[in-house]
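User: We ran a pulldown and think these components assemble together. Before we commit to crystallization trials, I'd like a predicted model of the whole complex to look at. Sequences follow.
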Amino acid sequence: MGILKQALISCVFVAGVAGASDDVYREYDPLETYEPNVAGDRKHSNTYQYWMDPKNLDWQMAGNPDENWKLNWKFMDPPFNPVVHGGHFAEDRGETLYKKLNTRGRFASCLGATKGNLKGLRASYPRYRAELKRVVGLEEAIEICAKRLGHQLENGSYDNSAVSVYIASRSNGMPIRIDVSKGPMKEAWERGRKLFHTRAGRFNLACSSCHTHQVGLHLRGTVVTTPYGDVAHYPVYRTRYQLQSLHLRFAECNLDTRTQPLRPGSGAYTDLEVFLTGLTNGYPVSVPSERD
Ligand code: HEC
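Assistant: Here's a predicted model for the assembly, 292 residues in total across the polymer chains.
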């Protein structure tokens, strides 16, 4: 091959690589009626009418897989679900681990608990951690704080999620309340919103392709629900997979749609968590919850 031709080919190749490393074009799947609280759900999902008044809850509906998306599963969670399941054992395990880590109170204060009181902590995560200069979810904070005390509680592991369920249980019934109106939390919310609507993967689907456009429709054995209120019951006990953190649920949806999943605690998953937690503002923390 002539030198000139070879140079030309490598030039084209380099140009191609340079192009790829720029912002890759991805189709945006717009639906911008989201608002970060329950009112957004009322406007957007059209399921509010079914569960706004617990007095009107229709238990036939809850037990019917074709119908229960209307409740978005919200009322299958505590205090409505009295059944003992693996999530309760996880909560016990989490309590044991938590007490071991917190013998001197340093674990709780690292997590941001005031005077060791866990009440309300779950409802205020994800939050901006000034010393880390970024926003972190509760599970990532658990990993970081355990590490500072010389213990490994990897984000996504059973034990990490168990501690998270225990901590969340101390806020049961309290509405999730994060402020996404300013600063780094707003930036994370905006990035998460963009990700939620951006198509990716082999099937070229965005999260919103299903969770916005297909709500109430069947996807194989399941019926897709709205993203509102989801975060309030995580980590969740899955009868198929044991305990699942929110980031592992993202990974499952990514895998299902042939999109490269990311590590729990990655920046993109944390941004998605902030977005979905914004959409959960006002919903009460309800753990331990169960999904099949
Ligand atoms: C091919 C359709 C599809 C896509 C795309 C998809 N999901 Fe899902 N997702 C589902 C189905 C089906 C379920 C199970 C039924 C339900 O809870 O909605 C689910 C469940 C979930 C849940 C758990 C809901 C609960 O109540 O526990 C979360 C959170 C979630 N998805 C987030 C995402 C995010 C974030 C993305 C984008 C990264 C995404 N999903 C992409 C189909 C999809």
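Residues 1-21 have pLDDT under 50 and may be disordered. That may be worth checking against your pulldown data before setting up trials.

User: Thanks, that helps.
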